[in-house]
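@channel sequence for tomorrow's demo:
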Amino acid sequence: MLVVALKPGHDGSIAVIRDRQLLYSLEAEKDSFGRFAAINANTILDIAEHVDGIPDVVALGGWQEQGVMRHRRIGAGYGGITSVEQRPMRFFGKDVQFFTSSHERSHIMMALGMAPRGDHPLQTVLVWEGDTGAFYLVNEAYEVVKHVSVLSEPGARYSFLFGLADPTFPDDAALPRLNDAGKLMALAAFAKPGDADADITATVERLLAIDSVYPAPKKAFRDSVLYNAGVESPTAKTAAALLTQRIFDLFADAAREHLPEGTPLRISGGCGLNCDWNAAWADLGHFSSVFVPPCTNDSGSAIGTAIDALTTLTGDPYIDWNVYSGLEFVHDTRPDPARWERVPLDHLALAQALGRGRVAAWVQGRWEIGPRALGNRSLLAEPFREGTKDLLNDIKKREAYRPIAPCCRVEDLEKVFDSGFEDPYMLYFRMVRPSASVDAVTHVDGSARVQTVSRESNTELHTLLTAFAAEHGVGVLCNTSLNFNGYGFINRMSDLVRYCETRGVTDMVVGHDWYRSRDAR
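structure tokens (generated this afternoon):
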């Protein structure tokens, strides 16, 4: 069975599953399109070029139009646990099955179908994203037998706090910005919830109590101490820390009160990208295990709709998948030999160059699904000097308070960090050992969001980290996404060359070719 699923709206994507194997998940933003982009002609043509047959099932994720057309739903619409529709349709001259289910269901089924297969009488799914904030208790037939609504719009409320403190965010009719949640997560580490005074606490509680932040009611908060306080102000940082704790506590309390202890927890929705919250779920003790897919936000919604169609037709949601299910790199030009010296990749020589302070654009195989660079579309640099963090943020045109994540060989985890569990998708915080002195990847609170790398999970990156360990004692590097600010991962040579030449990146590795800047040498 060949299933092709489409996710409309922001974070548009197309997923292809054949006989339970994820073949492709193509997000519209990748290949240097705008972040959170809707499906475009390129995405559709890329799928048409790479899939060798007409699908048996065409699945459309549910969505809701915005603005004046908000009354019109797309497919099965946004919400609804049982919102599923099927009918025959013609697709390029072939009789196929058309399937659509709600956006809410796409998150539930993505979390279930991408999780490890197991014999579970009951599983708990947490969907917390811009609109939905709820638990779903699921039985062996993959039916929701209990629905616990906790807090609407948790992700949007989180983002709105940033906009409330940001003087550039308008007072009227604006929607919470999709990229503000990650920034607020970084700022929350600069303060502690207990530092909040009565005014900050009152604002946070008021933000949690209002009916909706669509549109963001900033004007109503003009009397708040947070109003246009500045996103890097102590007030905003303390409020961010308090809101982070309060949202988690609301959901944790609901889990303890309404859900049986000992079920596995599957997390879906954009809030699943908050590494602090993921670590807190793992530490809570109420659930037997925690699983978060690497595309837990809407970038995985098309996969969830495809899994929903598969489950409806076969009764089984589980799929085989690989995080590197994007497209291969496009060689649409050759770097100018007068500016770039091309040599075969030598992992040890590259490790030595990185140790001397060079920065490498690292491109291998197919791009990663989800928003995190996991060693196939990455910028790599040495991790020891704090100035390296500032250099990378300057290259990426990001705010100075944003942390830089590390990648680390599994063999070195407990030398550098306080725990040795594997996290190949960079979804959990852990604390850095002070003796490790990896200042570039240590956030202000002593934490780091680590991608763990084994030979099995990413052979080429593991080989480079091993070479770096031979030179420096530990296999750790800075690893941040290779992209223009506000755009998805770079995936073609013309964009890569332009990026490196305009941003001062001295080295480009594409597969086994190493391009070294002649100017830098």
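heads up for whoever presents: The first helix runs from residue 41 to 50.
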